[in-house]
Amino acid sequence: MVYRTYLKGMKEGIPVGLGYFVVSITIGIAAKQANLTPAQATVMSLTNLTSAGQFASFAVIAAGAPYLEMVISQVVINLRYCLMSCALSQKVDPKLPFYHRLFMSFGITDEIFGLSISQKGRLDPWYSYGAMSVAIPGWTLGTLVGILSTSVLPQKFLSAMNMALYGMFIAIFMPAARENKILLPIIALSMGLSAVFHGLPWFGFISSGMKIIILTLVISMGAAILFPVSEEGSGEQV
């Protein structure tokens, strides 16, 4: 059972791993511009699975800012993963050991979260491990390839790679949205409010990471109140 669940996670995580490989090439290029060595960039991608956090760290490193600024920027930008962890904690078995929760939390990214939360019933940690086992190497190897191939790839190709991650993220949620009539309007509402937050000058003082946190809290709380699910984790409204 564990073996089958792990393989299922690997199989469904392969598109994520391939997408990560392509997208993280730009991470490697940005790391080179920040004067990081290939080893430093690779270790960073292996231990910090977030594109926004890594790009922000490059700016902090290039500016020679103090460690405190680095810590604050990473906490603010990556705080949304705490929300994702809280959401997944409601989907796993309440008796799941702490070490499983710890290992699962390390590999939470937007796409891994999307795959995990879309699973029917309780989430088996071995599913997440399977997806992580192909997604994390894809992200890390792409960074290494990017920093080793700087100034080789054409600019048009780099621009296309920046859009690949968004397309992959949409592809993860669309199958679940077709099965759940409530999910699609919530996704559309999220996209609309995100565009409003980004476009209106009144919200210009809020960082991009904090905007994601605010929208996640407001929309998820509203959906939970209006469309609660059963305690058994079946995904059906009560």
List the helices and strands and how they pair.
Elements: H1 2-33, H2 38-47, H3 51-63, H4 67-78, H5 80-89, H6 98-106, H7 110-117, H8 125-148, H9 155-179, H10 183-199, H11 208-226
Helix pairs in contact: 1-2, 1-3, 1-8, 1-9, 2-8, 3-4, 5-7, 7-9, 10-11
Describe this structure in words.
The chain is mostly helical and 238 residues long. The protein has helices spanning 2-33, 38-47, 51-63, 67-78, 80-89, 98-106, 110-117, 125-148, 155-179, 183-199, 208-226. Residues 233-238 have low confidence and may be disordered.
Largest beta-sheet characterization: none
Query: Which spans of ≥5 residues are poorly predicted at pLDDT below 50?
Result: 233-238
Radius of gyration: 18 Å
Overall structural class, as computed from helix and strand content, comes to mainly alpha
The total beta strand count reads: 0
Please write the string of helix (H) and strand (E) elements: HHHHHHHHHHH
Helix content: over 70%
Write down the overall geometry.
Answer: globular
What count of helical segments does DSSP give? Answer: 11
Residue fraction in strands: under 5%
Let me know the average pLDDT.
80
**What is the CA–CA distance across the termini?**
30 Å
